[in-house]
Design the sequence.
C-alpha cells in the first residue's frame, strides 16, 4: 500500500514560561485509500496537527511527508504552488465566497493550477456532480442549505484530486441528520479511492470511521489500526 502521509516524531512547541508542547512527538502513517478519524478533547493538539498536516504551519522538529514530498522543509513558494494538489480542506464553517456561484466556488480550487476558466469550470462541474449537486451550479451560497454548502466545499476540496482531503469538524455546523449525510458522502468518496482525514472532538462520529486515532496532551494515545495489526 502506498503511504500518502507520514509524520515522523513531529514536535510543535510554542514559546512561553514554560513552553507549551502542543505536539510532543507524533508519528503516524496513513496509506492511500484510508478514511481516518483523528479524535481528541479540547486542547489535545488537534488544531496544531491540522495546521501541520495541512502545510499551513511547520513542526519545531520531525518530518512531514505528503504524497512522497517532504513538506516540512519545502520552501514557502513551492508549498504555495503544491498545496492544492497535496491537501483539499473542508472546514466546519464551509468558507465559501458569498458572491460566487457554487460552480465558481469549486473552480477556485483550481486557481493555482494554470488551467483556464473553461477548464476550471468543467472540472468544477464534474466535482459538483460527484457530490450530488449538479442541479445547483448557479446558486449562491446564501441560496443553499447548510448540507449543500458543505457539499460545495467538499467538491472544492476534491476538484484538484489532492493526495489527502483534510476535514476539520466537517459536521460541526450541521444538524444530526445532515451531518450523517455528509459523513455518508465521505464514505462514498473514500470507496471511490479518496484518502480522507477527519479531525474532530466527537468520539461518536469517529467511531463510524474505519480507523480512529486518538490524541491527548499532544501525543497519540491509541490507533485502531495498530490495535488491529497487533
Ligand atoms: N499559538 C499558540 N501559542 C501558544 N500556545 C498555543 C498556541 N496554539 C495552541 N497552543 C496550545 O497548544 C495546545 C494544543 O492546542 P490546539 O489548539 O492544537 O488543541 P485542540 O485540540 O485543537 O483544541 P480545541 O478543540 O479546543 O480547538 C493547547 O494547550 C493550546 O493552549
Sequence:
Amino acid at each position: 500500500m502506498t503511504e500518502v502521509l507520514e509524520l515522523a516524531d513531529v514536535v510543535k512547541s510554542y514559546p512561553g514560561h514554560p513552553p507549551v508542547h502542543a505536539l510532543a512527538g507524533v508519528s503516524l502513517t496513513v496509506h492511500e485509500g484510508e478514511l481516518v478519524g483523528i479524535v481528541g478533547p479540547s486542547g489535545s493538539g488537534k488544531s496544531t496537527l491540522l495546521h501541520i498536516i495541512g502545510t499551513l504551519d511547520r513542526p519545531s522538529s520531525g518530518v512531514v511527508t505528503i504524497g512522497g514530498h517532504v513538506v516540512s522543509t519545502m520552501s514557502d513558494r513551492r508549498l504555495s504552488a503544491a498545496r492544492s494538489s497535496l491537501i483539499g480542506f473542508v472546514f466546519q464553517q464551509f468558507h465559501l465566497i458569498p458572491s460566487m456561484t457554487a460552480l465558481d466556488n469549486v473552480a477556485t480550487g483550481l486557481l493555482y493550477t494554470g488551467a483556464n476558466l473553461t477548464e476550471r469550470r468543467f472540472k468544477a462541474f464534474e466535482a459538483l456532480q460527484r457530490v450530488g449537486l449538479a442541479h445547483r451550479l448557479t446558486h449562491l451560497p446564501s441560496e443553499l442549505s447548510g448540507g449543500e454548502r458543505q457539499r460545495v466545499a467538499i467538491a472544492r476540496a476534491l476538484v484538484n484530486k489532492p493526495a489527502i482531503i483534510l476535514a476539520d469538524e466537517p459536521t460541526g455546523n450541521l444538524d444530526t441528520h445532515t451531518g450523517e449525510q455528509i459523513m455518508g458522502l465521505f464514505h462514498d468518496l473514500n470507496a471511490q479511492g479518496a484518502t480522507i482525514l477527519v479531525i474532530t472532538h466527537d468520539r461518536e462520529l469517529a467511531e463510524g470511521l474505519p480507523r480512529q486515532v486518538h490524541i491527548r496532551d499532544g501525543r497519540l494515545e491509541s490507533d485502531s489500526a495498530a490495535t488491529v495489526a497487533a
